[in-house]
Amino acid sequence: MGIDEIEAAANRLLFGVGGLSVPATVTPRGGAPIPTRIIIDRDATITDDYGIVLESRCEVGVLSEEVGRVDRGTLIDTGKPDDRWTLLEPIGDDGFEQRWTASRY
Fold this sequence. Notes:
The chain is 16% helix and 50% strand. The chain contains two helices and six strands. Strand 2 (34-47) and strand 3 form a beta hairpin. The longest helix is centred in the first third of the chain and has 13 residues, at 3-15.
């Protein structure tokens, strides 16, 4: 088993039931809703070299093999009241998981 297969399997575990993920619906701009699981950190803190908090933001991770490529404006809905998000800026993409900053919708 190569490193790509190992990483893909690890991501499936992370996003699976019992992992760190929550159920959500991902709706790409102009696309159909996709029921899936996401990883969401509603209060991710960004610090400087001295540990001073510069920013607090929401970060969302989606599994590429489940939702395909997403872009700015994709809607994320966890089904909870007042828990809908719009993807803003990409912050990471390893080919398996895409991570984005998000704001409330």
